[in-house]
Amino acid sequence: MQISEPMTMLTDYLLGVWTLYLAFKLIREGIGISQRSILLWGLSFFATGIAAIIGGTSHGFALYFGTVTRVVIWTATLYSIGFTSLFLLSAVIIATIKNPLRNWLIAFTVVKFILFAVWIFSHPEFKYVIYDYVPAMIAVLILQVYVKYSRGDRSATWIISGILVSFGAAAVQQSGYMLHEHFNHNDLYHVIQMGAVFLLYKGGRLLRDASEPSLERE
Fold first, then answer.
1. Average pLDDT rounded to a whole number, residues 78-82
2. pLDDT at res. 215
3. What is the Cα–Cα distance from 38 to 18, expressed in whole angstroms?
4. Is a pLDDT exceeding 90 seen at residue 79?
5. What does residue 180 show for φ and ψ, rounded to 5 degrees?
6. Domain carrying residue 114
7. C-alpha pair distances (Å), 125 with each of 8, 131, 171, 177, 200
8. Does residue 108 fall inside a structural domain?
């Protein structure tokens, strides 16, 4: 069996397995202590891990896929990334904003995802994923900077660091920089992103749902 991009497949699989492992830990913790923000953060990790596994499969076994299979794999990857931005942003909104504004922002985030999902079905281009994902990450970054300096939330430093490392990884990927002929820009991106995922995991464990005013008075 011929593998088209073995190192890219391997690093994608490593990133996927690592992220899924952390996802299950976050989901279990979020359910255990009844924190929706941690649960949603864990779901975002799950979506990211699935995207990485699918990506690794695409890189490694592309020579064996027919047209329909390639379309299905590509579409699944796009939707997985869309779910990632939906869950990440929703988690931070729940951890940062109180009602009634929280409900409006969550509704906006869900509508944004639905519009993305409908559009991407007939326009399966990666640039539209970027248009959806990057603003969501910037919004998460802004909210975490806000809570870091207004409330001193312990999650903020980890999450801010994770986002910045993730942006750095994306910059490396876009640069086309190669450490070796058998370790290209995609492989390097995956390795750096594993570090970013760990930082985001550490921050996600510290998220707490924003208390409602009625609970604060009790």
1. 94
2. 36
3. 18
4. yes
5. -160, 160
6. 6-206
7. 21, 11, 19, 23, 27
8. yes
- How many domains are contained in the chain? 1
Averaged pLDDT score across all residues of the chain: 89
Give the single-character DSSP code of 40.
Answer: H
Encoded amino acid at 28, one letter: R
pLDDT exceeds cutoff 60 at 119: yes
Whether 153 maps to a domain, the answer reads yes
Residue of 56, 52, 36, 39 whose CA lies nearest to 197: 52
Structure tokens at 128: 């539209």
Pairwise CA distance, residues 41 & 91, whole Å: 6
Identity of the amino acid at 26: L
Nearest to 94 by CA among 46, 22, 153: 153
Residue 93 in domain? yes
- Cα–Cα distance list, 84 to 75, 100, 111, 177 (Å): 14, 24, 15, 26
- In a 13 Å sphere around the CA of 146, the CA atoms on its Cβ side amount to 11
Cis peptide before 100 (omega within 30 of 0): yes
CA 75, CA 57: separation in Å to the nearest integer? 14
